[in-house]
Amino acid sequence: MKLTIFAKKFELKKKKPDNVVWDEEQEEYIARLLPYASQASGPVIKIPNVDAFKQKGVEKVSKQFQTELEELKDKIKDFVKTASDTQKVYTAKFKFEPLVGETYFLYEGEKEDYLSLIAPDQWKKKFLGAYRLSSEYKWERIEW
Fold this sequence. Notes:
Layout: H1 2-14, E1 22-23, E2 28-29, H2 50-90, E3 103-107, E4 114-116, E5 127-133, E6 139-142
Antiparallel strand pairs: 1-2, 3-4, 3-5, 5-6
């Protein structure tokens, strides 16, 4: 019995108090190595408000994504319009080789549409639109 009391007293003497930062393996004080305060009188650890940061980030990214989406929608609309116009003109009948940068006129024919050099104010045919051939060989509709 006396031996167990002695062993307990020895353990208590060997054990460091809770406020002492001691590494059992290295057998040294490690308070200076910790990235945080180890004493009650140390600086207060403030946890940043991460939720506000996240909310702000989500709002900014959402606006950016929405803007990019609108730009992509506009780009797709322009692409579809250009592709449709290009297909419409290339499927029309014409017996000349169009020059890049020149304006041509599309008319409705009896059997098929046709492309002409003649402006709509010079004759009375059903006018479908004025088109210019781009350097990429795409047909762009222009106002006439």
